[in-house]
Design brief:
Length: 482
Amino acid sequence: MGRVDDDPLTLAISPPPDETPEQREERLKEEAKARKISDDIDEEIKAAKNTQKKKPNVKVLLLGQSESGKSTTLKNFQLAYSQAAWEAELLSWRTVIQWNLLRNVHTIIDLLTDALENERASSDEEDSSSENDGEATSGPPASPTRRRTPLIFNEKHRLLKLQLLPLRQVQKDLEGRLGASSSEPTGQEEKLAKKHGQETFVRSSIWKASLLPGRRNSEAAVGLPKRNREAEVLQTNEILAGLAQTIKSLWDDEAVQEMLRRRKVRMDTLPGFFIADVMRITKRDYVPTNEDVVRARLRTLGVQEYHIHFDTGPAAGMDWVLYDVGGSRTQRAAWTPYFDDCDAIIFLAPISCFDEKLVEDRRMNRLEDSYALWREICSSKLLAKSQIILFLNKCDLLEKKLRLGIQVKDYVPSFGKRKNDAQTVSQYFAQHFKEISKQCSPQPRPFRVHLTSVIDTRATAVTLHAVEDGILEMHLRSIDLM
Ligand SMILES: Nc1nc2c(ncn2[C@@H]2O[C@H](COP(=O)(O)OP(=O)(O)OP(=O)(O)O)[C@@H](O)[C@H]2O)c(=O)[nH]1
Ligand SMILES: [Mg+2]
């Protein structure tokens, strides 16, 4: 091994042996200058790297059909990573929950009205001796068009209807506060509501700020001075507290429950189901719980941007931008401009919907619509480099349906004679999504899937941590490549 002095580089840059003191001083000055330039360059590179790492926020899009659980997933992000903001906004959800409750009430009242009218029509034609004592009857499901429907309602029900009449106006007021707009229907409730001329489409972008006490007026405040608004809120709370017991009587009524069973309306599986909690949520000092907020239903219109700042964990110090979009067909054209530059898509497919039809197109099976949408997203060239994470959502409802004996093969013939249990069914659906991803992706991409029930905030927090790690890893890798 040679001595350091023999090293050609050392020899080349070492001072000449006959250097004078002036030359030495000059040389040292030059060396200091060069060192400064080199240090400055190093600093610039470091700063550039830092800004590169900070500048492009992680950009995530939540996609999927309407009612697939996109906004609910967003709420889970906020709950897990922006706790302070989440808690500050809890109270604003009270209005949405009250509105959801009133929609439950009016779904029942509309069915009841229908049944009562039907009763009158049939009793006109029937022998008056056929009227019973108003007790609920058992037997085949009642159909509104079928004659000789056994009568199951009495004066009590007409009185309940009358007592709850003021709630129509309260619902309208709440819609005004939330920013009611179009009349695009969703599901059974909306169909009925539409029939009765109710507004059912609520804009979710602008309502929050105006509903928090002490917040400044915003677009959603619909022109009401703050004091009037607060008075209106108090009045709503009072009316609801005053009618809570009547709403409970309606819900607990055996004939009403029998009517729902016969008409195959499973209220507890409808989005925004709160009537069973009426006594709790109409208390004057009610503050929504986390679970109430994730169960609250408010449709998204357009594309809404949310910023999440990570304080802890592997993404600490970073800002993520999440885009929550409206999922119904008319809303989907607005998604594409957001594909550019997108790090990851969280795609939600509600797998409990295998036996349901799209509200906006009653010929289209909801699972088929999810497959078609997934195909489009996977094949998008703009998204070729984006990570796509699939949430097969509403697994809790899938289990409920299968327990009720609903057969997947009746709606998905290719499912054949496989076991009709949640595990087999979800794996079967997952496999189908996987194949589409493999066939349609412009370049190979890993298939990442999670079975979720995003109303379960604890389980979802665990899923989100896994998602966070995956997205972050890919984001940092893409920065390294820049
Ligand atoms: N039981 C159950 N309900 C869920 C689940 N995920 C979402 N929901 C409920 O389904 C309803 C619709 O969820 P959203 O998150 O509002 O749906 P979305 O995809 O944002 O719908 P749009 O805004 O219309 O595109 C809400 O009332 C949720 O509480 C789930 O996994 N299980
Ligand atoms: Mg939404």
